Amino acid sequence: MFYTPEDYRPDESAAYLMRRILTLMAGEVDEALEPQGLTHAQWVPLMKLHMGLASTVAELARECQLDGGAMTRTLDRLEAKGLVERVRSCEDRRVVNLQLTPEGREAAKQIPQVLCKVQNAFLEGLSVEEWLQLKSLLQRILDNGTRLQGSGREGNE
């Protein structure tokens, strides 16, 4: 056992440290993208569209782990900024596809530069080997969590 109730300290848990890192990184990324007028809620879907990970509101909501209503509001903001447009499918008029405008593609192209700069700053002092080991360890933890999520625990709650 890695943790026991007798000596558990939340601020020393791996989950707490990961959350703190994510919060600090998100703040740095938001600050860097602020001149472009992009918030975390906006640059994530913009990047996912740019990467071709989704083409509809439902797909994008799943990719961003948001409900449909929140995704629609975010897309409304991105559309108002001229970065995304909704295009009705020719094959099925019930389907609305999403696409980046030329301005949206240009904005999305700049996001990886910001992400790399911020993440590299956070990884300063680590060797390439340590970085690879860290990624491997985090992937194993993620795999464990994914297995737990699909283990049918719903009936036990």
Would you kindly provide a written description of the structure presented here, covering whatever features stand out?
By secondary structure, the chain is mainly alpha-helical. It has a single domain (10-122), classed as Winged helix-like DNA-binding domain superfamily/Winged helix DNA-binding domain (Arc Repressor Mutant, subunit A, Orthogonal Bundle). It contains six helices and two strands. It has helices spanning 14-33, 40-50, 57-64, 68-80, 102-122, 128-149, and strands spanning 84-88, 96-100. Strands 1-2 form a two-stranded antiparallel ribbon. The relative contact order is 0.10.
Average pLDDT level? 92
Unreliable sequence segments: none
Using the coordinates above, name the CATH class: Mainly Alpha
Give the strand tally: 2
Radius of gyration over all CA atoms, rounded? 19 Å
**Largest sheet data:** 2 strands, antiparallel
Q: Element order, helices and strands? A: HHHHEEHH
CATH homology group: Winged helix-like DNA-binding domain superfamily/Winged helix DNA-binding domain
State the separation between the terminal residues, measured CA to CA.
23 Å
How many H/I helices?
Answer: 6
Second CATH tier, the architecture:
Orthogonal Bundle
Helix content: 55-70%
Structural class: mainly alpha
